[in-house]
From TrEMBL:
Signal peptide stretch: 1-15
InterPro entries: ShKT_dom
Protein name: ShKT domain-containing protein
UniProt superkingdom: Eukaryota
Disulphides: 154-188
Keyword line: Disulfide bond, Signal
């Protein structure tokens, strides 16, 4: 009898996120949203998104919770199970990715990080994304953590460079902008700005052929600044990506 009664008091847990589990992780008892699910901003006002994608139970996606994702974020159905409708999901991604908990699938957050980052990409905080100490390193090594996927590995080290564009041409400010305002002032290295590898500082510029890349990830690394990243020695860059980085 005690066993039967105890069954009534066992807490039931169930994931209520819905039919699309992207940008979630299983924590042992339920699927919950990852920090990357809500790391971006909505393209339109939050108030408008709240009207278009009203929370089914008044709770919106947030890191660590399992709020039910509004059906309109991914389907035309009104109950689960529901098939994902691509047009509905694309509209949500374009306009209200944060409200729908889809930030990790937007272009700015959906890209590979380098294979050997200088910090743990999974533990990067919002404050680090805005930190003069970390921004440029994150853009190179962990672009998906801060929404830097479209920056080609080059961002301003400080976030307010664009407030006064005249500093880009001010004689006494050149050392500052070359270090802290590379993106705004057009000072990105050619490798990171275009995503195409150019001659590295480790190259003599006289060879006509290069040893084969030892990694299949060189193109992605080059796009994120590996070829000019002085954290790695010229020998290390040559050993991994001599052809891509054009290192003799």
């Amino acid at each position: 009898m005690y066993f039967l009664l105890s069954l009534f008091f066992v807490p039931f847990t169930h994931a209520v996120i819905g039919g699309d589990l992207n940008c979630t992780t299983y924590n042992g008892t339920a699927f919950v949203y990852t920090p990357a699910a809500v790391a971006c901003d909505n393209a339109i006002s939050d108030a408008s998104c709240a009207v278009l994608y009203a929370a089914p139970d008044t709770l919106y996606p947030a890191a660590g919770n399992d709020a039910e994702r509004a059906y309109a974020c991914y389907t035309t159905a009104t109950a689960t199970p529901a098939a994902v409708v691509p047009d509905m999901k694309q509209a949500a991604l374009t306009n209200c990715a944060k409200t729908c908990g889809f930030c990790c699938q937007t272009d700015a957050y959906n890209c590979p990080n380098v294979q050997f980052p200088r910090l743990n990409c999974a533990t990067i905080t919002r404050s680090q994304c805005d930190s003069v100490t970390w921004r440029t390193i994150i853009a190179t090594d962990c672009p998906s953590a801060c929404g830097f996927c479209n920056q080609g590995g080059c961002v301003d080290a400080v976030t307010n460079c664009g407030n006064d564009l005249s500093i880009c041409q001010t004689v006494g400010m050149q050392d500052f902008v070359n270090t802290y305002c590379q993106r705004t002032c057009g000072r990105c290295p050619s490798t990171t700005a275009s995503g195409t590898a150019t001659t590295s500082s480790g190259s003599t510029g006289t060879c006509t052929s290069y040893i084969a890349d030892s990694s299949t990830s060189c193109a992605a690394w080059a796009a994120n600044g590996f070829c000019t990243n002085t954290f790695y020695t010229a020998a290390q860059r040559r050993a991994r990506c001599a052809t891509t980085c054009r290192i003799c």
